[in-house]
Amino acid sequence: MSRGAEAENLAERYLVAKGLEILERNFRCRGGEIDLIARDGETLVFVEVRLRGNPRFGGAAASIDRRKQERWQHAARCYLARCHGEPACRFDAIVMSGLEAARIEWLRDVL
User: Fold this and answer.
1) 97 CA to centre of own chain
2) What span, in angstroms and rounded, lies between the C-alpha atoms of 76 and 78?
3) I need a labelling partner for 5 at 20 to 30 A (CA). Which of 35, 38, 47, 111 fits?
């Protein structure tokens, strides 16, 4: 299993333990991807998972650049086009500096 897949598995377990329901993993459409789509109460949450072990280049949160944000938002629009109605939504990031739960930081409403 790749480190990216391990990070997504760890993030999924973390969010479920925090009370979120995972609806979909690795949602893809032409031009974008979302690592995890979850429900937090009535809110639909689009989650980006980032693992960066070396902070020299700005760490995991800094790796979510403008291009990544645009692709993330595009994929969210594709997903929402399949939904009935317009649920409340937010964009969260799970950033980690290693593959341990103690190294997870959950950033809510980052966009």
Assistant:
1) 15
2) 5
3) 111
Domain of 25 in residue numbering reads as 3-107
Query: Strands 88-96 and 43-51, how do they pair?
Result: parallel
Instruction: Supply the CATH number for residue 17's domain.
Output: 3.40.1350.10
Angstrom distance (rounded) from CA 57 to CA 63? 8
Residues in Cβ contact with 55 at an 8 Å cutoff, skipping those fewer than 6 apart: 97
Tell me the pTM: 0.88
Class of residue 55 by CB neighbours under 10 A (exposed 0-12, middle 13-18, buried 19+)? exposed
